[in-house]
What does this fold into?
Amino acid sequence: MTSPQGQTKPTSGLTAMRESYDRAILNPRLRAVFGPTDAYNLGFWRQEDGNPVTQLSQACGRLIERHCSLDPAADAVGCVLDVGCGLGLSTALFSRHYRPAAVYGINLSPHQLRHGRRHHRIDGGWIAADALRLPIASGTADRIHCIEAAMHFTPRSAFFAEAARVLKPGGQLIVTDVLAIAASDIVAPANLAGTLDSYLSVAIGQGFAPVLAEDVSADTLDPFCRYMQRIGLRNVARYMQSRLSGYVIAVLQRRSDIGRGEPS
Ligand SMILES: C[S@@+](CC[C@H](N)C(=O)[O-])C[C@H]1O[C@@H](n2cnc3c(N)ncnc32)[C@H](O)[C@@H]1O
It folds into this structure.
């Protein structure tokens, strides 16, 4: 997510997105809200034993753990991409989860990548690139994780097509993303999808078969908004509630019966 209070008018879509994130993600006031970790997402607010999570920084980490738990058979994996990797915490945790695989943190922002390089050790590398033009050879990645970033990739369908191009047949895209009913600085008009079915139909159209797909708003968006209210950021909660209709977690498998990058 970007800061809902962002004031600056965009110069071009990608530059505006990068500048807006760079201003928000290391802003000391926002870091104070997100706590001591390097995550920047809405979080997963339920612990493994079912008990609720009460702190945002812990919930952010739990969301990354949730991604890992969706891919327990990590042994046979050689190449993993973390697209929209923020400050690199998720990339580092994926690197640990998939060791000895090569894990690449990919972000539009060289500034955020510099932070990742300085603060997190990974087996792989940091790549400055737009998610719609990944500098990765076709059919070479085993997994792509994308935590709360695909709503910004305009259009999201082009990201699904690019992910299908770089994944090996049978490889998986593991994504958490928001459903939106109204455009905002979080979700562009091209990416409005108000229901899980409408979201999945876009991925299916680009060569993916859903292995698992759930609306997990009750563990993500809803408690995040309650937390924002509790700490006095009622405008943030209201803004999100008026525009977002759900929160998706999905494991999408690249179909092996299609050519590389060829939509079905
Ligand atoms: C909500 S943050 C999520 C960060 C991280 N995944 C996490 O969970 O902490 C979205 C990230 O996507 C990145 N991003 C936005 N548009 C992008 C694009 N077109 N290509 C690559 N990264 C992009 C932003 O710079 C930001 O780091």
Remarks:
- The chain is about 35% helix and 20% strand.
